[in-house]
Amino acid sequence: MDVLKKLVGRVDRARDKYPKTMSVLEGLTNERNTWRLMGKLYNDRLVTCLKDQGEIPQPAKNSERQVIERLFQRNSEVRQAWIVVEWLERNAQDQEEDSLVNQMQFFSDSPVAWENTLSALQRGAIGPNMITEMDPDAPLRTGKQLHSLDQEDETRLIKTLFGCVRCGLLEEGQELCVRVGQSWRAATLEGWRPYHDPNYVTGTDGQGDKLPVEGNKHRDIWKTVAWRMTEDSGMPQYERAVYAALCGNISQLQPVCSSWEDLVWAGAKCAVDVMVETEIRDVFVKQFEQLPTEYWNTPTSLAKVFSEISGRGGGPSREGNNPYHVIQKYLILDDWPGLVREMAAWVSGQCDPHLLRLVSHLVLAHRVLGVNGDSEAEDEILKCYAAFLMDQEKLSLAPWYVSRLPTSQHSPIFSTFLTNVNNAEDQKLCLYLGREVGLDMNKIVVSAVMLARDRSKGDMVNSLQWLCHDPDSQAPDLITQTNSVIRKLLLEGDVDMATKAAGLVPSSVKEVVARDWRGDGSTLPTAAVKELLALQSYLASMECFNDWFSHYHRGQPTKPQLAANPSFTERVAHEQREKQFLSEMERWRSGQLIQSKQAEEKLRAVLTFPGGWLIEVI
Predict the structure, then answer these.
(1) How far apart are CA 425 and CA 431, in angstroms?
(2) Other C-beta atoms within 10 Å of 62: how many?
(3) Sign for the pseudo-dihedral over CA of 585, 587, 590, 593
(4) How far separated are the first and last CA of the chain, in Å rounded?
């Protein structure tokens, strides 16, 4: 996938030129993201949630960080919501990595911010709408603007900074701010961090020096101020969105979200923020700065987040109907039965092969994990994928996926596929792989041979090859099915094809049949052995009779005739032809006598067949 992404990245307007390639790349990317999400969520649900947490220690004095850690240890809802946030940030990193790096490389190192504005002020070349002071709040406070070049850089910086926040790269964004001379901006992005004083837990460093305090002791004040900044319409939208992501103001974060994933990230991030803030204020007994009602009305349920996204309408809402996003939504909501019903509806119609592969492996993975859904719908999904593999003639894969289905479905599904496999090596491969995964290949192959009887005579005869690869175990079925094929062909009057079918029985099986007929063993069904020998005897007699008949009616030499009033030369030639005729006639009579005896013996063998020809002994 990475190679495909690099190749596409080298082509201008790749989406217009290679839409199918881009569609495949998007599908593979969504599939990777889905497995990444599932791995993280189920690791939490099936491992972390089942661990004995024991007694969770009380947090240190005034330690907001430890309060949050205790919340994450005991509350799976907030923990899994944060998993979703980190998952979406990782996806954004993978998707925007190259463009984000290019954007950050655009900025050059600078000891001061707004160099062009500063230079204009120093030269006295300022316009009427340009700021005359260089403090960070000057543009907002005075209502004036920066130099046009600085304004462009500022807009680009804010968008890049938001991209860093969206990708979970806040520290890299702060480093960028410092690099371009805006250390003050980097500092304003530190105020959200929870407070923790390690000296209450570990004491000093052993030399009487205090350890540095982490986070912001007045985080509630910073949060209130940041909220007010996000509500200030005079600030750029992306700058408001940066602080909105850190203070939990979802109403100011959503306007810059252009995709379904962006909206889910915004909803999950703000939901975690509210749950964490609620826990901190419930644990500590102190006076906090009041946050607006809109903050506390932020939905903390991811189900509510998805519901609101769906109700927004527009492109992101329609994007949520993408099958990959539907799968991700159900995985986040831990609704496997609901997802199975959705996936079963997809595969019942035209389904993209990549999506079909994904949903099939989701079923298999959930079965391994012990997560139960609608078993019939799951089987239908696996059945569709197995049918797809067989349509694509994936001989090495089909047996394994067929084996994942209920035993009752193995033979009907796989035998139909095997009727189209005619190459001997391919047949051996299917037999080997099928037995390796636990399929009853003897039963399945017999079913395939029986299905072939409804097809052409050639297919019917060739299908017997399936029973010739392992004479030790397949001999009984081979004899029984060969008898059935010969009978059907004889009823249709095709003796030649019946003879061909009889000739497919390997010599080793014929030897076993002969021993059983003599009474030297009893490994084969007696009735089938007798029928096979009777049919072979009949076919041999028919072959001899046809040879005799052909020899008698079409092989007899023709007596030469002498023309009227022959010349001397013609009489001499005629005498030579008569001598040749008499010689050939003698040979013909001799051959006819031999063939008559052979035909008589073969026909007598049928008439005097031990126990009666094709008469079953009761």
Answers:
(1) 10
(2) 15
(3) negative
(4) 68
Q: Which residues contact 596 (CB under 8 A, 6 or more apart)?
A: 548
Are 390 and 417 a contacting pair, CB within 8 Å? yes
Query: What is the C-alpha separation between 538 and 364, in angstroms, rounded?
Result: 54
Q: Which two tokens stand for residue 429?
A: 């491969």
Instruction: Say which DSSP state 404 is in.
Output: T
Burial class from Cβ neighbours inside 10 Å (0-12, 13-18, 19+) for residue 357 reads middle
pLDDT tens across 525-554, in order?
777 777 777 887 788 787 777 777 776 777
Q: Quick one: tokens of 417?
A: 């596929």
Closest CA to 175 of 104, 114, 102, 277: 104
Give 388's Cβ-side CA count (13 Å radius): 19
Cα(218)–Cα(234) distance, rounded to whole angstroms? 26
Structure tokens at 519: 């009474």
- The per-residue pLDDT for range 345-364, each reduced to its tens digit, is 999 888 889 999 999 999 99
> Contact 279/71 with Cβ under 8 angstroms?
yes
Residues, the chain = 618
Furthest CA-CA distance within the chain: 149
Residue type, 396: S
d(CA 372, CA 374): 7
Q: At what angle do helices 115-123 and 148-166 cross, to 10 degrees?
A: 160
Distance CA 401, CA 212 (A): 59
Average pLDDT over residues 182-211: 80
SS3 456: coil
CB 341 within 8 A of CB 349: no
- Contact criterion met (CB below 8 Å) for 366 and 39: no
Structure tokens at 134: 């260089």
Q: Are 256 and 238 in contact (CB under 8 A)?
A: yes
Strand partners, 214: 196
SS (H, E, C) 161-188: HHHHHHCCCHHHHHHHHHHCCCHHHHHH
Q: Which residues contact 320 (CB under 8 A, 6 or more apart)?
A: 260, 306, 309, 310, 326, 329
- One DSSP character per residue, 187-231 reads HHTTTTSPPB-THHHH-S-SSSPPPPPBS-TTHHHHHHHHHHHHT
Measuring CA to CA, which residue among 520, 431, 518, 433 is closest to residue 477?
Answer: 431
- C-alpha angle 40/41/44, rounded to 5°? 90
Dist CA 261 CA 459 (whole Å)? 54
Taking only the tens place, the pLDDT of each residue in 229-262 is: 999 988 899 999 999 999 999 999 999 999 999 9
Using CA atoms, how far residue 109 sits from 157, 188, 209, in Å, is 13, 20, 36
Alpha-carbon gap, residue 483 to 451, rounded angstroms: 15
Give DSSP secondary structure letters for 550-566: HHHHHSSPPPP-PPSS-
Alpha carbons within 13 angstroms on the beta-carbon side of residue 315 total 6
Q: Is 334 helix (H, G, I), strand (E, B) or coil?
A: coil
Rounded Cα gap, residues 467 and 145, in angstroms: 87
